[in-house]
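Hey,

The postdoc asked me to send both predictions to you directly instead of through the lab channel. I've kept everything plain text so nothing gets mangled by the mail client. Protein one:
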Amino acid sequence: MTDMTDSQKVQKRQQPKLLLKWSWRELWQGQLWPVAVALTLIIACVFALAALVSRVEKIMTDQGRSVLAADLVLVSNNPIEPSLLSKAEALGLTFSEQTRFGTMAFSEQQMQLISVKAVESDFPLRGQLALQDRLNVQSKVNPGELWLSERLFSLLDVKEGDIVAIGDAELKVSGKIAQEPELSFNPFSQMPAVLIHEHDVAATGAVQPGGRVQYRLYFMGSDDKLAAIQKFSPLEPGQRWLSETSQGRTGEFIDRARQYLSLTLILVILMATATLVLTCQHYTSTRVETVAMMKSLGASKRWLWRWLSGQLAMLFGLSAIAGLSIGWGLEVLLRLPLADILPDPLPDMGMSPWLISMFVALLVAIPGIGIPLIRLLDAPAISVIQQQADRPKNNKAYALLLLPVAAALIWFGDNKLMWMTLAGIVVVLVLLAFFGLVVLSLLRKRKWGPAMTLALSRISRSPLTTGAQLAALTSSLMLLAVIWLLRSDLLADWQQTLPIDAPNVFAINISAEQQPDYLAKLDQENIPHSEAYPVIRGRIVAVNGIDLLTQVDDPEQRDEALRRELNFTWRETLPIHNDVLDGNWPEPELAIKGVSVESGIAERLGLSVGDELGFNVNSQPFSAMVNSIRHVEWRNMRPNFYFIFTPDVMVDLPATWLVSFRIESNQNDVVNQLGRDYPTVSLMDLRTMASRIQLMLQQVSLSLSVLAALGVLSGLLLVMTLLRLSMAQRQQEIKLYRTLGASRKRISATVWGEYGLMALIAGLMAVVGAEAIVAALVKWGFEMPPQWHPMLWIMLPTAAIGLVLFIISTMLKQLLQPLKS
């Protein structure tokens, strides 16, 4: 074998460089740049949403644990076993004990029923405790100290340094509780709280065998150690675990927002994937002759793979850099509206968004790009001079689809919302494609002008191609509508459940004698308030004569409503904010021993209209017949009840009264005056919580709007890609029309008619599909009542026609340009 000449050596050294230049030119001039745009969009969206969801989840966990004052809490009706403390110490967990009990507090002038929290000096393990005296603020309770909630100073008529007796112990008032992490938002179970040290419990003598005492053990540590302590100590009767998932009023809002984030991410990936597949198929169709020519010149399949691999590597690298950069900026943009409620510093998002975005892009790109490229490389060399329409296809390439399918099975798991969405999209698209073909078939039977007749003939010539085009155009418009409608429905639901004028103060324990004067005082101060509700604590014990308490031996396995006393009320009419689902509430003169039941408890206990229920109030049994089932929105901060009786059932039983009202920021003096004028009435001030929730909803709404806009943009990109590729494929056909003598005007009218008709049909079908999918998601995924969107039936078809006509107008002149004489 002879040695290579210097010229051959130079050529060999220059081959990689020349190949790189060719690949770069092919990337930007060979229709690969739309593929890069689609990949960039996928990477950017996945990164931004994964990063935001990761931060939000960590923030939710931290905030939930701060409200708990620990990472995990064991609540028990019996003293904590020493063995549990030893196990926690062996695991390296930090723990703190607390004892809670109700008792009377006595000052020189007054007495008041209070809730005592006896804590250790290391309480709280999480969150902030602020105890304020005249000189400073401290964060720990020391032995011998007594800290009072602010309203106890007026209720007991004491000041700092005075003596208050709690049981047998006389303690000096150390100051007020300015802030504590543990919050309860149940207005029916509020007693003013005091903090003492665990060391002083014995001196009070208030904790006696058989008394109503609650013991709590707080834990802080890693998740695996918390799981180990839960496994070590199975729950006994009278015990329960509290974690961040079982606490927090805003959890449902955040959870739904997180669901929307995940769902929008999936829809954006679907649309970007469709764009990727379409652009890649178009690229391969334009490169068949190039590949055939290379094969005819002696290029091997291996060399062609090397040539294409270089292009794909450059494409993926550029897409990764651009996508991660845009995704990082997008994540910043998405959380800008949340700046006021996010902690500073933000929790680290970790490496998962970077890895997840690249992994998803690969899973999408491997089949999306790989399948058409494998088929491209199978193009025979003779294709350079003759199209091989019937050449065999490499069906083995479709095995690449197993990668994203397997990943979806692992990722989605038992996520009902995701599977419902994907299944719904597939079913709806198949039905709508068939429906579109039927409509086109019916239109062909009518008489039209020459241009429309030609357009209908062109559309109907290939049912499979037309059905695919209609399905693609419909799906892009439909997914675009789904993203925006879900956002609108979520925001509307949140606004209805917590309107801007929602009550933020509850007055409870109002005596029957005080009730008229109290309401008159509110009216005098022009404070909007609810009606007054009588409240009696009681239990449901029987259904149709069957004792509910004997059906389940273990009290902890019973429904929550059977394990505790509930709040009963009676009225002549049902509250206007409750919707009757079944039965009816009788007129006052016909209301005889009836009760209206909240739908949730009715479903759990199997109650229906006509059932006779047995109740017990202060050891006094009575019964009532279910006359209606009501839907109750527990999130609206209005007075709500499981059971509402007709007046004849309970009117003779002693009750206290409840009223809710709204206090604005400039009316603090009114609240203080009410506390002084009615010292026995308990005021539950929820203004801080209500404003926090309102702010959170406002900020989350902005983030969802930004996200929805991103989804809409990805949908528009898919529509534009679809139309441009379709128009590009029509170029040869337009040349044929001109060759046969068709005028430019006739061709334009035919194209306008064809695509305008398809846009109208696709727009209408997209509305039907979007309404169906959103209704299913809202009802079974987000558990909200479905809504009708009449404006969508006008806006989406109009927008579809406008978008299609705009894109055609930008391309038609270019398609006709080469035919000018």
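Protein two:
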Amino acid sequence: MTTMSTRETSTVPHPLAPLTPQEIRQAVKVVKTQRDFTADTRFVMISLQEPDKQLLLHHDGRKALPREIFMVLRDRKRRRSYEAVVSLDEAKVVDWRYLPGVQTAITEEEFAQCDAAVRADARWQRAMRRRGVEDFSLAMVDAWPTGYTGELDDASGRRLACPLTFVRAFPEDNGYARPVENLVALIDLDTMEVLEVTDKGTVPLPPLSGNYDPAVRTSDGNWPAVVEERQDLKPIDITQPEGPSFTVDGYAVQWQKWHFRIGFTVREGLVLHQVGYQDQGRIRSILHRASLAEMYTPYGDPGFTHYRKNAFDEGEYGAGFMVNALELGCDCLGEIHYFDAVVHDQDGEPVTLPNAVCMHEEDMNIAWKHTDFRTGKVVTRRQRRLVISSFAVLGNYQYGYFWYLYLDGTIKFEVKLTGMVSTGAFTGECPPYGAALAPGLYGPHHQHFFSMRLDMAIDGPHNSVYEVDSVPLPVDEDNPHANAWRTRNRLLACERQAQQRTAQAATGRFWNIVNPRRRNGLGEPVGYKLVPGSGLLPMQPEGSQAWERARFCYGHLWVTAYDPTQFYAAGDYPNQSRGGEGLPAFVRQDRPLADTDVVVWHTFGEHHVVRPEDWPAMPVVSTGFALRPNGFFDGNPALDLPAPNGCGTTAACHDQNPF
């Protein structure tokens, strides 16, 4: 069973409600009257300009707040990038800004036009013929960003991409099974002129197909070998006869004691707003806004085809544009509520992405349990979580973004990585910078980094962040048996102290976000702790492209003072950027962080040493983190859970008591 309502019952639209098609059309119409708008101007990103935070904190729902739309535009003929802000209430442009030297994200339109332009180039065609390819319609051309290696300074001002090529045997074939090694084009995305085609030498195309879809897999020439589908998987039915435990009013959600709002942007995709938990009759805030602030994938292969691969999937493409339509029984199970997302094309026309976000409940085994071995009495309560998820198709990879809210106040975020590894071709021995996937085919080793922007609001906007380490104590008269250890709390009092902090898994380091103005029943500041699930750091050293352009990856935690203009870990426009933007620039102000409005940035990742089992469709691997209440409540907030059906307080095991 599914529900689809996204219209709020309130007569006043909520100021954080995602944009409607009508609002996008209205704003686009207004912008097209701007003097600097030309027929060659394309709409790169259109999103809600979120209202002032203080206005949101005091908004009572009775009066509408100003409704504004933020736009990023590219005039291809004049090679200019712009930002604009449109007031829907006044039907006018309230801000128009030229961005000298800025390259905006690559659009879907440019991706398709790049494919066609490269395939029509005579130099590229000659290179393909040298590899035995005559039917150019079967080629796939992926518009990889150039990054910044210092090689293209003479092309300053051009909007560039370095397309890579793959070959299919037939239209539905998996082209990533046959990468064209040593062939790289350079294209101007504004004019679609192919500037260069460089061929560093022919490497034979891998001989075998890599089809994963049973509809196109063949027993002849496929790797791995085709096997029959399993016939012995029995159905698992998930039913909720009384319906789900959540209620939805437009984009506002209540589930158990959780209250929050769903948001969506073309750059970030899924966003959570105003996350709070009802405790003792009042809703206590935890997060004002939570989103994925950047994704970065550096590759560790120095080969000519691969060394430029340093993709910022949000800033260089936009994750929200690429979400899947989620399917019942495939992506989500149970009683589902779907949220559509409204994005836009390059002409500014709204595009509705159906079922972009899925929400459902999951049983999660045991919430808590205790057996009194003296009496044999057993008390058990089951855990449950609310799942809010979305899947983005970013080139060869697919990324699932999953928020989990638990009955005990825990919040988790998880990225599920799947899809297709980026491939290369080889002859002889496999390059040492990757692993063989099939004869003549390999996957370069690489890393995935994800930066979360967590606008914290632990019982309000006055928060402080402590780094908490567990330390052994010296052997002395207070510790004669050398077994004592304690936690040491260090206040991150300013941005200089809170930059590029690293996880320490061996000693369980975590970061405690507290409100020093609010005390729990024990007299301690209320708080939540951020528990990292990954200690990954980039393999590239200082001075590398990763170091210059993705410095946020070199620390698992940064804390900044809230600034409504600072949203993205690698800066607003990482495409072709030289680096130094985003978090490294934010913290140069060294603003105070104690007892103030803070934003916590957490970076985590997945270290991908490629293996044969990753081919042709990569099994899901997951990475993420947790926010756990740490003195936020006076005790276990899940003590009030009812006993599961047929599982009450029992003494069934007392006869087995070994004591």
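Summary for protein two, as requested: The longest helix spans residues 108-119.

Thanks,
C.
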